[in-house]
Amino acid sequence: MSRPDDGPQVPRYTYLGPEGTFTEAALRQVPGVENAECIPAGSVITALAAVRAGTADYAMVPIENSVEGGVSATLDDIAEGEPLQILREVLVPISFVLVGRREMELSEVRSVATHTHGWAQVRNWAAEHIPQAEFIPASSTAGGARGLLDPDTTYDAAVCAPLVAAQTGLPVLASAIEDTAGAVTRFVLVSRPGALPVPTGSDKTTVVVPLSEDRPGALMEILDQFSTRGINLSRIESRPTGAGLGSYFFSIDLEGHLGEERVSAALAGLYRLIPGIRFLGSYPRADHRRYEVREHTTDQAYRAGQAWVQEILNR
Ligand SMILES: O=C(O)C(=O)C[C@]1(C(=O)O)C=C[C@@H](O)C=C1
After folding, report:
1. All residues at 6 or more sequence positions from 15 whose CB lies less than 8 Å from its CB, including other chains
2. Which atom of ligand 1 is nearest to the CA of 20?
3. Can you list the domains of the chain with their CATH numbers?
4. CA of 69 to the centre of ligand 1 (A)
5. For a substitution probing ligand 1, which of 140, 168, 180 has the most ligand atoms within 8 Å of its CB?
6. Whose CA is nearest to atom 11 of ligand 1?
7. What pLDDT digit, counting tens, does each position of 37-92 carry?
8. Would you say the pTM of this structure is higher than 0.80?
């Protein structure tokens, strides 16, 4: 409960920690975060749970990587349970270093800790340069690296962001070890549901659509709602619901904002088809890229169509 002497409330941001994760780098891009309280979480699930429980106002979590694809922990967690809302997206370029518990030759590295998504992005390099090394899954890239500071840690090395090497002083055994140069991870800032950010003309909308019926044409009916309204999808992924083989939901990002007629018409159409649809937010694109809205699907075209129908009904 707030008391008169509490002063202004500082927003509380949680993120996949500890210090030095790529998720923290994403959080640092949010304007005003330097004056906020930042609370590292041990996992994506605990970060999202803190927002649901109200112990944090916002959570920054990874959602997809340009090489490794969707981050299942995030996609699955925001698809069910207490609803959450995406407020913005943030892109972070990804490059990795190999740090060691001490200076050593690559041939001496017997075990390497990192996040599974990090390992997936360096596995070809690892197969070539440290084929003898065993992969040890860590809660995050920075978590794996910081573990090396503990004298009781049994693994030899970790794959992490160059920043963590600078923060910890751990020796860098190899740099730029990513298999694909120019990789990018996309993060989302989520809160409990509230007002939508205003449309900017360069927005994305994220929805979760359960595939309720396993029959021919079910996916086509979903896609039809978008294609007839000239809406481009920037991501569509199927994820298992966990209810058994063959039970899926689609996680979809589309170009546009719910405040635009063609998007609201498409989502209303989808709701009629699949009432279990979940709206996860309309928010500005991180790359500010503007998309083409075809002439017959602009707000103006929709309003002209509605006015024409109304005029007939008013006769
Ligand atoms: O471990 C980290 O540093 C994270 O922020 C997590 C994460 C991910 O989940 O994809 C983020 C970016 C990289 O692609 C590797 C790992």
Report:
1. 21, 23, 24, 26, 27, 38, 39, 40, 41, 47, 59, 60, 61
2. 3
3. 9-94+182-194 (3.40.190.10), 97-175 (3.40.190.10), 195-306 (3.30.70.260)
4. 12
5. 140
6. 22
7. 999 999 999 999 999 999 999 999 999 999 999 999 999 999 999 999 999 999 99
8. yes
